[in-house]
Amino acid sequence: MKKLQHLSFIAILLTAFVNTSFSQGSQIFVDQSWLQNHQSDANLVLLHVADQKSYDAGHIKGAQLINPPEFTVVRDGLYWELPETSKMDSTLASKGINTDSRIVLYYGGDDHAATFRLFFTLDYFGLADRVSILDGGLKGWKSNNLPITKEQPTVEPTSIGTVKLKRSKKIKVDKKYVRKSADKGDINLIDARRATFYSGSEYGNYKRGGHILGAGNICWLDVVDENMFIKDKSVLDQMYQSQGVADGEQVVAYCHVGLRASTIYTLAKYLGYSARLYDGSFNEWDTLPEEYKVENGK
């Protein structure tokens, strides 16, 4: 039973030191044993990242629904854009999140991308030290025959602005940063799209098929197993190293609109790399002048 077979003393240690470890910065992933040990914690906020239909079909006890429109906006024709601070304030308040809350996210469906996008969004607003992702999400939870419910928890909203949000100036980069840094060889660009889009054999409505010049490719689907558990750290690290990423180097992830790149961004952080995300991604890059170069066929 993957992720569930732990020696009891490890669980005891986790319980004893959880407040200390979180105060020093949140672990990016927690496993099922951790959640079982902390489901009753008064400060735990468990968020089921999916749509209403998924939530109503069954969720982990105590989980609240957070629907992607609650933490994304459509801007300039692009979906999955980062929200304004005021919108994020309202969303957090509606979930009862306060300055003591420990937030655990899990994917409620068969795609983990929206959950990683929410992690990136909360990181962007300065909250990464109190946020973790449940490894395996709901599918992994059910694969180990763990209980789900249709009961909704009672939530008391907090006041808007209770949690102070501060936008990061570092983790989100723009087209000029990508072009300048890539030309100098200062970054490792990773394209999170499927290999067919990366190679240019499939390009949908794009004018140019392929990828940003110099980018490697790690498809967002390839980082999890059949039950949606994150692959072993050594396997993930090899994926990044195979694309030319070395210890201590910076990874800049992109995809179509920044959604799936959030997975590659989060895992880069998990592996200890310096991570950033080009949010305009290929949807923007494809509209730019020719000096914003594209290559294909690889």
UniProtKB/TrEMBL annotation:
InterPro entries (UniProt xref): Rhodanese-like_dom, Rhodanese-like_dom_sf, Thiosulfate_sulfurtransferase, Thiosulphate_STrfase_CS
Annotated SMART domains: RHOD
Family annotation (CDD domains): TST_Repeat_1, TST_Repeat_2
Keywords of the record: Repeat, Signal, Transferase
Organism superkingdom: Bacteria
Transmembrane segments: none
Pfam families named among the record's database cross-references: Rhodanese (PF00581)
Residues annotated as domain Rhodanese: 40-150, 183-292
Species this chain originates from: Roseivirga misakiensis
Gene3D superfamilies tied to this protein: Rhodanese-like domain
Recorded GO MF terms: thiosulfate-cyanide sulfurtransferase activity
Record-given protein name: Sulfurtransferase
Stretch forming the signal peptide: 1-23
